[in-house]
Amino acid sequence: MTDTTSAPAGTPSSGAPRIAARLSGTVRVVGAGLLGASIGHALRAKGIDVVLADTSPAQLRLAIDYGAGRAATEGDAPALVVVAVPPDVTADVIEAELARFPDAVVTDVASVKLEPFRTLQSRGVDLTRYIGSHPLAGRERGGAISARADLFIGRPWVVCRDAETTASDLSLVEALALDVGAMPLEMTPEEHDRSVALTSHVPQVVASLLAARLAVADEGALRLSGQGVRDTTRIAASAPELWVQILGANAEPVVEILDALAADLREVSEALRAPEAPGARRVVAETIRQGNDGVERLPGKHGQNQRFESLVVMVDDTAGQLGRLFGELGELGVNVEDLRLEHSPGAQFGLAEISVDPAALHGAITGLQERGWRIAGTTND
Asked: Where is the Prephenate/arogenate dehydrogenase domain (predicted)?
């Protein structure tokens, strides 16, 4: 019989060096969905004892079968409890875990931090041992079956301490973030919620609104879909039930940004109603330019602001072609910083958009062309 709990998903091979865990003892994870199970996989890869709990017996058994942790026993005495449940029950579960384990530090990974904190305060719950946190990581698909040990690697993990947080308790939550490969940073709950409203919650609404237009579009229009519409609607595949909770819990800052965005859209609409009118072209140009400025501020690879150039290579839709492309780029000494694939409708080839260091762009184009690759364009075209 195969032991399905011995190799957490996404775990490096046994021959890879493993950095010693900062946490020790038992970590209890409440909620065995995508985030909870991924935390379990990542901690178990470090050799940490992980106890899983979930209100759904089927979800719990599935997460255990995949190796995210073990079932709870009466003798468990966790030093750290991680609450990974939907936003509408986060405060209830935090309160219950604080009462059940009076010696444990309790954190949660909900995407909204202020509402559960205020709810618990209004109930008079002693929050000395509670520290809210939020890993900025996820996937389009949820559940234990989608969980991975590498989900948090290189991702920010916000930690919301307050004046009553002790250094030793704070160190536990920071150790959790570091042990799963994330980068901890401190924010207040208010700062966190306003930040994710702009960088996560409003983008979800905008992507969903745009994708909803596709649902009623003509088939002919959809056949013209390129990478631009795929990029801007990728997150529209998210679960409606979860986002109703997230947006409702963070409504105030989301509404502020949506109102400002609606005003911007009205301004552009008015300019395009009369594109020959004085100032109309300037409104459109400034809108695009300000978008350029905003994109430039987004952190790039490894959190840096370094920007890359892209070349688009035509790749035959046959086995091994993408691997050959990567191999020949390696021979040319070109590091692939990012990759995006687009299939051409009705054609037996795809387009590989490859991001490289600007200094390597010319050599990559020349070298690939000499090897018979067809270059469809660059970001400078």
From this structure: 25-302
